[in-house]
């Protein structure tokens, strides 16, 4: 029976390269001279440190194109609130969403079931497996999910006949 998986993955090596490239650009910019502006990465968390809200916006304007250049979908970032740190420093945390969260998985499965396509969708950990009798039905299902879910980066892989 043909099937495929809907997943949400981020290439962590490319992300690290994008963060390093953004840090190089930040340290080289004239308007960041003498400031403590930087982007730190820990596992699935990016932390932007700056002197003001405006600097954080400028750092995002450097980081996001770097990520796009490395073929990382910027929709995988969940932006946290800007926090005041001692003195006049601020920081913002960006969470990297890897895998499909449970509520998003349920939304995808419900969308597929409500579409009346003759396919079965099941949640398998952080992925959704879709299987059907014909390839064409699976391709219609991919088109449907691509059209309806636009706020979350999804990949369609592991296509089997």
Automatic annotation (TrEMBL):
Matching InterPro entries: UPF0234-like_C, UPF0234_N, YajQ-like_sf, YajQ/Smlt4090-like
Keyword Ligase: no
Function description: Nucleotide-binding protein.
Keyword Nucleotide-binding: yes
Superkingdom in the source lineage: Bacteria
Pfam families: YajQ (PF04461)
Keywords: Nucleotide-binding
Protein name: Nucleotide-binding protein GCM10007933_07580
Family: Belongs to the YajQ family.
